[in-house]
Amino acid sequence: MPSLIFGLKIYLIRLITSIYFYLDRHHSTPLPPPPSFTLRIPTTDKKSKLKLYFYTPPSPTLPKTPTKNPNPAKHPTIINFHGGGWTYGTPQKDARFAAEVTKAGYLFVSVQYRLFPEFGHPTQLNDCSAAVLWINEHGEQYGIDPTKLVLTGWSTGGQLVFSTAYSLASQVSLAGIISFYPLVDFSTPRSVKEERCPIAVQRSKTPKLFKEISEMYGAASGPERSGPFMSPGLASDEMLRRLPGKVAVYTCEWDTLCFEGEEFRERLRGLGKGVGGYMVSGVVHAWDKFPTFKRGDGKRDKLYGDAVRELREMFEK
After folding, report:
1. Span 157-212, pLDDT tens digits
2. Of 86, 36, 80, whose CA–CA distance to 304 is shortest?
3. How far is residue 231 from each of residues 34, 100, 156, measured CA to CA in Å?
4. pLDDT tens digit sequence for 36-68
5. 98-136: per-residue pLDDT in tens?
6. CA 309, CA 168: separation in Å to the nearest integer?
7. Eight-state DSSP code of residue 31
8. Whole-angstrom Cα distance, residue 129 to residue 269?
9. H/E element, 49
10. What's the distance, CA 74 to chain centroid?
11. Where do the structural domains in the chain lie, given as residue ranges?
12. Is-contact 42 98, C-beta < 8 A?
């Protein structure tokens, strides 16, 4: 049972991020779209339901409501895991990227996995895996092509895409993975990461409280924090070879996670994967999620456009 002080910290984090999200969603251009519809699906423990947010491309055959058996044309589909230190965040955080994906004619499904501390590790991984399995088995009636699935994720969601791919390697065939500024090494202390990239500490817009909570999640995970499902960048070569043939990793120059992300991308390339992505210069962690109000963000637009081109290559292999 979390202490009262810890519970207050979680409440404060979620309050702050909800304000940021409100400003970004309602007062930053271009305005992100609402989901086309949502669905609730069973979790692996059968005790609760997961909510999936569907964003569909303009199409006369795709449902705008959760209609079973509409027999729509099948579309390549992105399954998305939001960021937020496993503690906060919402699937709608990535709606602006979803808009770019649907413009390209793809379907975008964002997963509302359960959060820490109400649910500890490995609940988040189990929920993401359950969502992918459900979509793979039942998605056709909602316009999903189960032979063309790509996982995308941001920050801790960028970690979850790899952990999920590891856990489902023998059950689901993925067309690719795109991971944005992921945490892939939970075993290295934060102090070491900050020494590698001191400018990230100077430029960081992440409150210390947020970092403290993510460390609590790691502590609660115990020795598993060094295992492949918490630190996917430390997985064996054998596990990495079971990943899809195409993987893209995008990092941020002023981010303590930059070094491990760059190192992981090169390791994947060395194993013969078709590797994309790059380091975005002059930006901090999760820079694309901060409210821009009326200014817009050309650098964000370029990143999203490049990621959609990566998706096209993954689907057209």
Report:
1. 999 999 999 999 999 999 999 999 999 999 998 889 989 988 888 887 666 777 67
2. 80
3. 33, 30, 11
4. 999 999 998 877 899 999 999 986 556 555 555
5. 999 999 999 999 999 999 989 988 999 999 999 999 999
6. 25
7. P
8. 25
9. strand 49-55
10. 23
11. 4-315
12. no
**Which residues 6+ apart lie within 8 Å of 118 measured at CB?**
none
**Is the model's pLDDT at 306 over the cut of 80?**
yes
Q: Are 76 and 106 within 8 A, CB to CB?
A: yes
Taking the alpha carbons at both ends of the chain, their separation in whole angstroms is 48
The amino acid that residue 25 corresponds to is R
Please give the CATH superfamily to which domain 4-315 belongs.
Alpha/Beta hydrolase fold, catalytic domain (3.40.50.1820)
Residue 248, beta-bridge partner list: 178, 276
Residue 288, amino acid = D
Distant-in-sequence, close-in-space partners of 248: CB < 8 Å, separation ≥ 6: 176, 177, 178, 179, 275, 276, 277, 307, 310
The DSSP result for 80-147, as a single string, is EE--STTTS--GGGGHHHHHHHHHTT-EEEEEE---TTTS-TTHHHHHHHHHHHHHHHHGGGGTEEEE
The answer to whether the predicted template modeling score (pTM) of the entire model surpasses 0.90 is: yes
